[in-house]
Amino acid sequence: MWIADRWQEFELLDAGDGEKLERWGEIRLRRPDPQAIWPRRDDPDAAGRFPAGSPWENVHAVYERSSQGGGRWERNLPMPARWPVSYPGPAGPLRFWIEPLGFKHTGLFPEQAVNWDFCARRIAGARADGRTIRILNLFAYTGGATLACALAGADEVVHVDAARGMILRARENLELSGLGDRRVRWIADDVNKFVERELRRGRRYDGILMDPPAYGRGPSGELWKLEDAVFDLVERCAGLLSDTPLFFILNAYTTGLSPSVLKTLLDLSILPGRGGVSDAAEIGLPATLRPLVLPCGATGRWIPERACAKEPGHRRPEPDGPV
Question: pTM for the complete prediction?
């Protein structure tokens, strides 16, 4: 498992009974998490009250699910509408606006810091060799990876997301991080249509990241299901890699796709034409009040053969088969 354990202003305090307890700066939130199937550290009484002194009591806001689907945030203590948190990236601090949003979200997935750090290391190494670096971030949400790549020295980052509101938040995060002078192209478009245009134009990228949703809408409004469409998308995106690529990252947060499935997708779609090595693992967040790690999906990564010795966790296949 790749664990996001370098946070200082975010903290997973505990998780259990289908919920997680988090600290975002000075604000504490409770929200659902289907992976937390074990008991909480503290049990509430029949009225829903936790024992005095329990970390689960006196939180600023709780996301309450509705029996009809969805839910809403219940605010218990005074708190700002949104507030900033910082992450100590390898190339410097990244700053993000946090805000309780619909469907239990906060505008950031903190476990993705493991991929931000990975990208920053790869880009910094290439910059040391004097290379010009272009990065493509697909399904880019509020821009965690976009910021990390820009700060690490990418000459251009292309940020693609179909939701204009998420692009606006990503731009605000870029400014908040003091990166407003970096070259980032903001593209509000369907990812499939964008990839097809880039292939026709012959544009190439040194690094590609994607974090596709479990479901979405295609160019003509048709339902897009990850399991049915992801291989074709990865295969087409592999055609956008430059002659000297740095990485390809495929993340799966909202699906049940295992690390082995992600690795096989990369092996079949990229290795035949590029060689190199792929690896995959669960990603997780460590709790601070109990010895547990909360699983937060899985990530697959491909790197060229020449980079294997520099990336821990990426191993060459043995003669008898993959490791």
Answer: 0.91
